Amino acid sequence: MFLSAFAPKPYSEYCAVHAPLRMNTTDSPVQPSPSPILELSSGQNLTNIREQLKKLERRDWWLWSLAVIVMLLLTIAVVSLSFPDLVAPQDEFFQFSLNQAVRGLVGLVLLFNTYTIYQQAMIKRLRRQFSQQLDAMSQLNMRAEELHRLATTDPLTGLANRRTAEQRLAAEAARSQRYGHPLTVVAFDLDEFKYINDRYGHQAGDLVLREFAQKISSAIRLSDLAVRLGGDEFLLILPECRIEQVPTLLARLRPLEVNFQGTRVPVEFSAGCVSYQQGETRDAFLERADKTLYADKHAVKTLAEGEPALR
To answer: 81 burial class (0-12, 13-18, 19+ CB within 10 angstroms)?
Structure first.
């Protein structure tokens, strides 16, 4: 019923068994990620704004280039009209026509300069609007990421919450059923946690929860998921891990002590682990894990060192 028959394997052998799983990229386990709708909409908006800014930059360069070209052409035109007056005898009609032409060219220069200034003002205003939109989009992205973090993680321990666990477990169960890969979950319950709260206070209880969360997070692989279900209950989702490998993982979690204001507080836990069975629903899978957890919790009361029950 319990794991007394399984001796813990050396840490090096545990790593040798699990190391290939880190490199599997052809069918990697499902990882939690931010909402794809938020990422898609915000990414498209940012891309559109950047494209508009690039168009404004190109338009700005085009206007300045055109202004230089027009200035050069007008200068050449004025010089060409004034050149005959320098070599030809004075003619009042020609002088009048030349003056009118020069005034017309000056008027065109002023008109074009006015248009250029107007376009520059429009470009600056559009740039300011796009910059404000970029700032707003950045703030929206930060808020979306914060909301996503609050919706998927436990605020006290930083582990995944129950909602994330249910989604991940359903995805991993479907993956295991499709490809036949092993899937194991380990349920944890801290022993005498109420006694720790009553004796040392809730600050000590929170510290115990954070330390235990950090302990299990450092003991698992990148493809695994550590979850705080609520209270003093935790869960590990271990894709591509056989149940026979769990004792090696649990051996790395014991012993555990928490230093609270100079006092060493020993932390014990009960654990129950089960392997996924083909065709099993998510709720039935978790129910079997709870049963093995409670069986181990009762066994701990009579055994000096409890081990998780296997089903």
So the answer is: middle
Whether residues 11 and 120 fall in one domain: no
Last residue of a domain, one of 97, 131, 152: 152
CA distance 205 to 297: 19
Interatomic CA distance for residues 106 and 180, integer angstroms:
84
Verify that 282 and 299 share a domain, yes or no.
yes
Spell out the residues 6+ positions from residue 245 whose beta carbon is closer than 8 angstroms to its own: 9, 14, 17, 18, 184
**pLDDT for residue 15:** 40
* CA dihedral over 39, 43, 44, 46, signed as positive or negative: positive
User: Which pLDDT tens digit goes with each residue over 218-244?
Assistant: 999 999 999 999 999 999 999 999 999
Inter-CA distances, 200 with 174, 191, 254, 262, Å: 44, 15, 22, 12
Task: Give the integer Cα–Cα distance in Å for 165 and 237.
Answer: 8
Determine which one of 154, 224, 232, 296 is catalytic: 232
Whether 232 is a known active-site residue: answer yes
Mark whether 178 and 303 lie in a shared domain.
yes
- Name the nearest CA neighbour of 38 among 124, 146, 165: 146
Residue 127's domain spans which residues? 36-152
235 and 304 both lie in a single domain? yes
Where is average pLDDT lowest: 59-63, 227-231, 277-281?
59-63
What is the Cα–Cα distance from 237 to 131, expressed in whole angstroms?
Answer: 44
List alpha helices for the chain, DSSP H: 11-22, 36-87, 92-152, 162-179, 193-200, 202-219, 246-251, 282-300
pLDDT of residue 2: 35
Based on the structure, what is the number of domains in the chain? 2
276 plus 133 within the same structural domain: no
180 and 301 both lie in a single domain: yes
